[in-house]
Amino acid sequence: MEESDAALITRAREGDPEAFRALVERHSVRLFQLAYRMSGNEQDAEDVVQETFLRAYRQLDRFESRAGFGTWLHRIAANCSLDLLRKRKRHDARIDPVELDLVEPMSTLSPQAPPPDDQVFHLEVQQKVEAAMDQLTPMERTAFVLRHFEGRSIEDIGRVLGTGASATKQSIFRAVQKMRRALEPVLNPTL
Q: Which tens digit of pLDDT belongs to each residue from 119-175?
């Protein structure tokens, strides 16, 4: 039987490193998915996950069980990702575009693989999505990812962003509008 988060937290607070390791193993994949969606970069996502667990470990005594441990970790990860995006913007760093080398040559495609033209279209859409995400402000990107990829509530997103409900909704709305404009030529080429 798998131990609950609450039991593992109790053991971790008592100094059991294996208990915290179990929490890391249980939650790291979902946190990586969130961080990757927000940063668009695998290495940055790994750094965000590591920073998230470091902050969680240091603040474990402050965790209140009113919210779920996974929810608490998601808030920390979203804030770490937002910090990264703000830092990246300050340094005017750009996310590396997807390299065309990532598409497998036709000789290595399995029979179940989609046709090459579908792969090219998928790659083009992926590049456009990444480019559109790059054009969002850190607030818009965070709000968009939390709402549309993570399914978080307006209240949760507002707590992460430090904004009220109307400002949170406005950030989501602006992000959606920018994404629609950026993706319209790819998704509706006849227009």
A: 666 677 777 888 888 888 888 998 999 998 888 899 989 888 889 999 999 999 999
Tokens standing for residue 152: 């978080």
Q: Is 67 helix (H, G, I), strand (E, B) or coil?
A: coil
- Separation of alpha carbons 181 and 111, rounded Å: 36
Given a contact cutoff of 8 angstroms between Cβ atoms, the answer to whether 175 and 136 are in contact is yes
User: CA end-to-end span of the chain, whole Å?
Assistant: 56
Q: Please name which of 144, 173, 148 lies closest in space to residue 161, comparing C-alpha atoms.
A: 144
Tokens 């890391």 -> residue = 24
Measure the CA–CA gap between 135 and 89, rounded to whole angstroms: 11
- Provide the whole-model pTM: 0.68
Locus of tokens 């939390």 = 146
Distant-in-sequence, close-in-space partners of 74: CB < 8 Å, separation ≥ 6: 30, 31, 34, 150, 152
For residue 141, CA distances in Å to 9, 40, 52, 78, 130 come to: 31, 11, 19, 11, 11
Contact 129, 183 (CB under 8 A): yes
Closest CA to 69 of 32, 16, 20: 20
User: Which two tokens mark 54?
Assistant: 């470091």
Cβ partners under 8 Å of residue 145, min gap 6: 34, 37, 38, 78, 81
